[in-house]
Specification:
It is a single chain. The protein is mainly α. The chain has 1 helix and no strands.
Amino acid sequence: MSLEILKSIKQTEDQAEDIQRQSLDDSRQILSEANNQSYKLQEQAIEDAEKDAKDILIKAEKDANSEVEKLQAKTNKECEEIKNHARKKLDNAVEIITRRVVNIYGNS
């Protein structure tokens, strides 16, 4: 009987070693899968962040273009007002110069 008990103990020890090896293999597999999943999540987060950044840049560019167009329209309007004002002054200056020339040479 003692031989049977020793065999039983040896068999139990072998089973315990097998369970321990299997647990270690399972742990390594779980860790590997967790690392892979972590890498995939990190890559997805980077892709999402890049997409968000691109969307923000596109929106900022559209907003900036809109502002540029508004400022360009305002500047064009101001330039036209200045030109019109200058034309009025130019017409007035021509009239004054013409009167002076006529007065100087007309009275000679």
